Structure formats: structure tokens, C-alpha cells
Amino acid sequence: MKRSSRLSIALHALVHLHAQPGKALTSAALATCLMTNAVVVRRVLGELREGGIVDASKGPNGGWSLARPAEDISLRDVYTAMGERLLVRTESDPGDVTCAIVRSVDRVMKEFIDDAEALLAARLARTRLSDIASEAMAKGFPRLG
Amino acid sequence: MKRSSRLSIALHALVHLHAQPGKALTSAALATCLMTNAVVVRRVLGELREGGIVDASKGPNGGWSLARPAEDISLRDVYTAMGERLLVRTESDPGDVTCAIVRSVDRVMKEFIDDAEALLAARLARTRLSDIASEAMAKGFPRLG
DNA sequence: GTTTCATGTAACTTTTAATGTTACATATTG
DNA sequence: CAATATGTAACATTAAAAGTTACATGAAAC
């Protein structure tokens, strides 16, 4: 996987977990389906675990599973748990902040970014994991063994 | 300048142009103040020129100037002219789109991104170059010779 | 017209963040 | 204790942005 957002990776993994209720999926199995690496999966799902969205268990028959129903997981929950940034950063060079113009630009941009984050979060809250899952399932998809 | 957004660079340059009405500023002079390179300035302002926000003139006493009053330049105008992305990209790996889940995730994310772009553009439209400039000028700033 | 100065732009290098990889410690099941 | 999975550190790779160099093009001043 070259350049997809961690958010997309997370959602893809979560749909797989939702599709296999009661069965823990390993990082390795998910990595194969997501066309990425097991460590990358652990890094992403590790954040979701800290956010209480998924559970992880070690040992034989261990792996990842949803911590609560897909209906109760919004994209905002996932976004927040990951500390993900949907907005690109706009800070200026630290050596440049002695300039009053730079400070004003930074301040205006910060106000904008703060507003934008709130707007985005509100929009993300409107979509739930179950919305993605039901659409994907309606079309059929390969299950993990 | 290590990692600031092109949008910040553009706004910084535009405020300088606004502060020196009737006088064209060169890429080299702006680069010094923006703590970056003249070619970077030309690349950014070149897009604004195509968007009708600034004018460029060659030869002695040439350089960059605003194409219209700062009151008539919104952050949205600048954003649009630059084809800038405030949102990080979320596409999945092209080799992965045979998976129905990936396609559903991508579709949901695309809907979200489209909505988000509209929200951000509307928010950007509320701030004008003159808003940034008047704040910066109230605090004083170094003029370019 | 020639000199000077500025933009326009191509080609290349450097830098940075994200991602991928390897290796191994830790914990859990049976 | 053997097998298996997460957790994580350390390092390598990759891709995008920015920086740099070099030079062609065009406009003003003399």
C-alpha cells in the first residue's frame, strides 16, 4: 500500500472484524487482505484499542475483534481515537515567527483549522461503521478464512 | 522553510504585496522575507497569477503586485487558485480496489471528502486578505525596501 | 539595439513524514 | 513448555514537498 490514509486502513480492517463476529482476526490475516504489513495493522488497530473501539487478545486463537457493535462506532470515533489529521498542517517555520505578518497568518489559519476540525468531526459523526459494512456486504466480499 | 503549507506562504506574500501598493516586489525580495527560495515564491505566486489574484511583470522595476484590492480576495479565492489540498488524500492502493470493502470505504470517504471540501471552502470564504493584513499592520511589521 | 533585470521553467538534490520490514520481548492458550 | 499472537523498538524504503542550480524569455531603461 503506497499512500492511503491510516483512516482508510482502519475502516477496512473494522469492516472485516464486523463481518466475522465472534471470531478474532490476526494482524497477519488482516494485513494480507489490506495489502499491507502486519506491523502497520498493529499500529493502527493499537490506537483503536486504546480508544476502546477494538479488543486485542494474545496467544492461540487471539487477534482483533470489535469492542462494541458497528452501529455504535461512528467515523468520528475512529478519527478521534487515531488522533488522525484530515487537515494538512499549516504552521510556518519556527524561525519565521518574529515576523508580525507570519504570526497573523498563523493565527488566522489556526482559527480556520480549529473551525474546520469541528466541521469535519460533525460530518464524520453522521456515518457509522455499520453504514459502510452493510453496503459492502450487499455487494459481497471475500471473507477471511 | 521546512514544512509550512503553500497556502501559508501565499498568504504571507500577499500581505506583503498589499502593504506596498503601487510597488512591485520581486521574487527574491519576497523569498528573503518568507525565509524561502525565489523559485518557490514563483511557483506559488505563478498559480495565483493564473487565478487572476496577482500580476507579474518582467524587467527592471518588475515583480509581483495584487491584481485587485485585498478586500476582494478571500482565502477561498487563494485556496481555489492554488488547487491546494487542505484535506489529506484517502485513496486506497489501486491494486486493492477489487475488494468490495475497499470500494465501499473509498466511496464513503469520497462522499465525506466532497462534503468536507464544500464546508471548508465556505469557511475560507469568510476571511479576506484584508482581514489578515489589517491585523498584521496594526502590530507593525518590517517592510521590504 | 543593447544592457539589465525580472519572471518562467526544467532538471536535479535534499529533506521529511509515512510506510514497510526485521527482530525480538511479552503474554496467553492448551 | 510449546505454539501463537500482540507490542514495540530499530532500521530501511518510499513518495511528496521544498530547495537549488541553470538558463531561456521578455520588458524596461538608457
Please provide a written account of the structure.
Two copies of one chain form a homodimer. Chain A has 145 residues and is mainly alpha-helical. Chain A has a domain of 93 residues: Winged helix-like DNA-binding domain superfamily/Winged helix DNA-binding domain (Arc Repressor Mutant, subunit A, Orthogonal Bundle). Helix content of chain A is 54%, strand content 6%. Chain A has six helices and two strands. In chain A, strands 1-2 form a two-stranded antiparallel ribbon. In chain A, α1 crosses α4. The first copy, chain A, starts with 5 loop residues before the first helix and ends in a 6-residue tail after the last helix. The structure holds a DNA duplex (30 and 30 nucleotides).
Order of helices and strands of chain A: HHHEEHHH
The CATH homologous superfamily name of the domain at 6-86 and 128-139 in chain A equals Winged helix-like DNA-binding domain superfamily/Winged helix DNA-binding domain
CATH class of the domain at 6-86 and 128-139 in chain A: Mainly Alpha
Query: Beta-strand level of the residues of chain A, as a percent range?
Result: 5-15%
